[in-house]
Specification:
Blueprint: H1 2-45, H2 49-75, H3 90-118, H4 125-147, H5 153-182, H6 187-214, H7 224-232, E1 237-247, E2 253-261, H8 267-282, E3 288-294
Parallel strand pairs: 2-3
Antiparallel strand pairs: 1-2
Length: about 300
């Protein structure tokens, strides 16, 4: 009874997290889409390439949020004869796509900033500062919503996207104020290059983690030797080998292993040992495990 209760509790928690994520993504999409429209209208009205470019960048982030939301929806589809694990892995692919899109977008912005550093163009500093200030508020609120759930990879991806946007907006505000006072137009691209470096540094870890999940590497936060000790720590387990751990999604991990159990134990008792192993693994972030009884360590 204790084992079943633990399993049901873990499953319910997973569903709750996904449901909460869905609502946060919908709020984030709504807020940022409204800002994209406002920024684009202001850009066209005041003929500001800076605002139009930033609106395009924010629109790409909205698209990334939509991709992640769709991935959550697909992940809930039931498994079938072809996709026996279901579609939960799409959340990993969405995180990888988000990281790549962000790095590509930052590369394009960085190239444009580097070009304008040598050929600065006049901009309306005051207007840019006010519009960008609105962006700081919207992006900060959205980023905070995702930060509360940053342990899930797609929420972490969204948080990084939105936090990066808030940094960009802060840089644009500073640049707009200084430009309006001094007409030093080169400050705008210079700040853009500095922000680009910060964003690349913060996104690299996301790209690494999502890539590792895609190729079924050990999930972040799990150590193989520690998992082996958990298994061998169960009474009557003599040895464990052929241990494989991988990510089923951004929130669930799976394991397969061969274990050697005391030969003198009756088969029914061995099954109880297997159940205890699975119970312990659930407390170590392994949600789905397949344990095979082996006769030797070879």
């Amino acid at each position: 009874m204790e084992h079943n209760h633990s399993h049901q509790h873990a499953h319910s928690h997973s569903v709750a997290v996904n449901s909460s994520n869905k609502n946060v993504f919908l709020i984030g999409i709504g807020l940022n889409m409204a800002f994209v429209l406002a920024e684009a209208i202001a850009g066209f009205t005041y003929n500001s390439m800076a605002l139009l470019t930033d609106a395009g960048h924010n629109l790409s982030d909205v698209a990334s949020l939509v991709v992640s939301l769709v991935a959550f929806w697909i992940a809930k589809r039931q498994s079938n004869a072809v996709y026996t694990y279901g579609f939960r892995k799409t959340t990993v692919l969405a995180a990888l796509v988000n990281a790549i899109v962000l790095l590509v977008a930052i590369g394009i912005i960085g190239y444009e900033a580097f070009t304008r550093l040598f050929k600065p163009e006049p901009v309306e500093g005051g207007v840019i500062a006010w519009v960008a200030a609105i962006g700081i508020v919207i992006n900060s609120v959205s980023a905070f919503l995702f930060f509360r759930q940053k342990n899930e990879l797609n929420s972490r991806a969204a948080y990084l996207h939105l936090f990066a946007d808030a940094l960009v907006s802060l840089g644009v505000v500073i640049a707009g104020i200084v430009i309006s006072k001094t007409n030093l137009y080169w400050i705008d691209p210079a700040i853009g290059l500095v922000i680009m470096v910060v964003i690349v540094a913060s996104t690299w870890g996301l790209l690494r983690d999502s890539f590792k999940m895609t190729i079924d590497a050990i999930p972040a936060g799990i150590e193989l030797e520690a998992i082996k000790k958990v298994i061998t720590g169960v009474p009557h387990v003599r040895y464990v080998h052929h241990v494989h751990v991988w990510s089923l999604s951004t929130t669930e991990n799976a394991l397969t292993a061969h274990v050697v159990i005391d030969e003198q134990l009756p088969f029914d008792e061995k099954l109880k040992v297997i159940a205890e192993i699975k119970h312990e693994l659930e407390h170590n972030n392994i949600h789905h495990s397949t344990i095979e009884i082996a006769k030797s360590a070879h």
